[in-house]
Description:
3 helices
Amino acid sequence: MMIQGDLFATIEQEERTRRRIADHMRSLRISWPEWNGPEVGMDASVNECIVFSLTKGREGYYYMAPIRLVGRDEDVFIAEINYGEEAPRHCREQNGERLRLEIWQVWAPWSELFRRRAEISGRMT
């Protein structure tokens, strides 16, 4: 009987994961319809506060960090942080750090969203 219970729990977990991915992708398309990501080679942002750093071997705070997607295995991405040299020192220290991200932990690049918002605001004044 325990095997059957484990099987149902696994199936239920897989269904929850499929729904979470579908909901995330729907939100991403509504919020940023012209972005065709996430795909390897694209710039993106971290969409969750606490994620796993492959570089440090532990979880850490990376919310909204600018990243480049450098690898993918199904719905898991490897991302490299890239704040650039103009960022504050405490941010630049994370440059090159690699993160393991589930697809729902990846969002369109925030810096691009902010830049576009500023352009639109400038046109409206």
